[in-house]
From TrEMBL:
GO molecular function terms attached to this record: acyltransferase activity, transferring groups other than amino-acyl groups
rRNA-binding found in the keyword field: no
Keywords (A to Z) from UniProt: Acyltransferase, Transferase
Species of provenance: Candidatus Kaiserbacteria bacterium RIFCSPLOWO2_01_FULL_53_17
The keyword RNA-binding belongs to this UniProt entry's keyword annotation: no
Entry protein name: N-acetyltransferase domain-containing protein
Domain N-acetyltransferase: 12-178
């Protein structure tokens, strides 16, 4: 079990991912999802669980997103040589906004401030890029109370908008203007 060093003792450095990080980013994502399933925090059928692994196609998609840095930005945090956490931001030009996606931390590094540091860096990037976009937003599963609490405690609020996708209900969050 990883030692929880606490935010005051953990030095967190955030950087942009490179195409060489694509494989590890996909592995981190699926490690996080499988951990949530094992803890009962995410439901998935057996075929879906078995499909939760990095594939050549999924790694290629991540690599292409990283290479298309005008539209997408992956922020990562490392512990030694290992990627400990990640966040993907996608630029939507037609709406003049950033969507935050794929916030994942390796389970052994949970609750050490990495997710908060990634979110703060993403918000900073969104505020200073592209002439200050009109909006930042994210979607999280209605089943994922832990993520909803995480975002709420860091200045986001549920807008009341939901969507159905992939058999899940998703809740939209935006920065709370009263706290930003």
């Amino acid at each position: 079990m990883a030692e929880n060093l606490g935010p005051e003792k953990l030095q967190i450095h955030i950087e942009k991912a490179t195409p060489e990080d694509a494989q590890e980013l996909e592995e981190l994502k699926y490690e996080n999802l499988k951990d949530r399933i094992a803890k009962g925090k995410l439901k998935a059928s057996l075929p879906k669980r078995l499909a939760m692994r990095a594939t050549a196609k999924s790694v290629s998609t991540v690599r292409q997103r990283i290479e298309n840095h005008e539209e997408n930005v992956y922020f990562i945090s490392r512990r030694g040589q290992e990627i400990a956490g990640m966040c993907l931001m996608i630029w939507h030009a037609k709406d003049d906004c950033f969507q935050f996606r794929q916030f994942y931390t390796r389970p052994k590094y949970a609750r050490q401030g990495i997710g908060t540091a990634l979110l703060e860096e993403a918000k900073k990037h969104a505020r200073t890029s592209r002439g200050s976009p009109k909006l930042m937003y994210l979607w999280t599963g209605d089943y994922n109370q832990e993520a909803q609490d995480f975002y709420s405690h860091r200045g986001f609020r549920a807008t009341g908008e939901t969507k159905e996708e992939g058999g899940q209900t998703w809740v939209r969050f935006e920065p709370n203007p009263e706290l930003s």
